[in-house]
């Protein structure tokens, strides 16, 4: 599995890294914690440029945050919660998630966008209260870009540094990467089923 994922990232190149990071912010198929280290790993092998990998990954992450920002700005918190209650199970988004992100933004203000991009459980949803609060687009893009840049650079660097231990990494990561993919699918299905039943009981 590890070699297959590395092969996919290598063959898709920068476009693949951009799209995967974009999708990771909208819909959780593969987390950035798996995408960017593998992209850094591929860069260390000489198939991609390391700096370009970081920039493309950051760009995908920021662009992926924009739909949630606009959703928050257009719908507002109450309508966003109603939408999450009705359709959010497909994105594993619940009304409680919207409230938690809004509380985080309320406690930390605009800096929440910067710090939120560094926290896996918050990094996607922090865009929603930023849009609800009417945070200016230049500020949103600035804080999102800075936070995403640090996050993607650290993950890519981790993969880059592991390349010299390829044989060991491949040996240990193959069962781990397979397990991660399986767990992600199971977790998504669990959240999907749970939120669907919760929506019916409202």
Tally of DSSP β-strands: 0
Distance between the termini: 41 Å
The poorly predicted ranges are none
Q: How much of the polypeptide forms β-strand, as a percent range?
A: under 5%
Instruction: Write down the overall mean pLDDT.
Output: 78
Order of helices and strands: HHHHHHHH
Helix content: over 70%
Describe the protein's architecture and organization.
By secondary structure, the protein is mainly alpha-helical. The chain is about 80% helix and about 0% strand. The protein has eight helices and no strands. The chain has helices at about 1-25, 30-45, 50-85, 95-110, 110-115, 125-130, 135-160, 165-200. It is globular, with a radius of gyration of 18 Å.
Question: Mind sketching the topology for me?
Answer:
Layout: H1 2-26, H2 32-44, H3 50-87, H4 95-108, H5 111-116, H6 127-132, H7 137-162, H8 166-200
Helix pairs in contact: 1-2, 1-3, 2-3, 2-7, 3-4, 3-7
Short description:
The protein is an all-alpha fold and 202 residues long.
Using brief descriptors, characterize the structure shown:
202 residues; mainly alpha; 81% helix
């Amino acid at each position: 599995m590890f070699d297959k994922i590395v092969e996919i990232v290598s063959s898709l190149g920068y476009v693949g890294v951009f799209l995967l990071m974009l999708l990771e912010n909208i819909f959780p198929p593969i987390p950035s914690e798996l995408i960017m280290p593998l992209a850094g790993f591929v860069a260390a092998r000489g198939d991609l440029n390391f700096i370009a990998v970081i920039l493309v990954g950051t760009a995908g992450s920021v662009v992926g945050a924009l739909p949630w920002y606009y959703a928050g700005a257009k719908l507002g918190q109450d309508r966003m919660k109603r939408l999450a209650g009705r359709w959010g199970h497909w994105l594993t988004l619940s009304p409680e998630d919207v409230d938690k992100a809004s509380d985080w933004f309320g406690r930390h203000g605009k800096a929440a966008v910067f710090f939120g991009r560094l926290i896996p459980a918050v990094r996607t949803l922090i865009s929603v209260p930023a849009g609800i609060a009417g945070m200016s687009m230049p500020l949103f893009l600035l804080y999102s870009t800075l936070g995403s840049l640090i996050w993607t650079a650290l993950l890519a660097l981790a993969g880059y540094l592991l390349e010299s231990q390829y044989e060991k990494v491949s040996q240990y990561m193959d069962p781990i990467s397979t397990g991660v993919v399986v767990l992600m699918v199971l977790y998504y299905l669990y959240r999907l089923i749970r939120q669907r039943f919760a929506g019916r009981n409202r």
